[in-house]
Request: fold
Amino acid sequence: MDEKTARLAGQLKSNPAMLKALMQSRDGQTLMQMLTQNDQGAGLQKAVQSAAKGDTTAMVQMVNQIMQSPGGAELVERINKAVQK
Reply:
């Protein structure tokens, strides 16, 4: 995960209202589709549970995979810009 993405994750973790707004946005919905498309969300659920316990390895891998997918890097960049506003 690059520095911008790590900063975004920290901002969202500390600001539940921002996270809720993001998840209700079109880009947030697209991100959720990308995170859940391969296994109907089972991998995301496990990654979130691990992250809640302090192990962010699975979440980082998921984000990196999205960043390498067609349009994934652009999506994350749009989300980063939206959160900066």
In short: Residues 72-84 form the longest helix (13 residues). The CA atoms of residues 19 and 56 lie 18 Å apart.
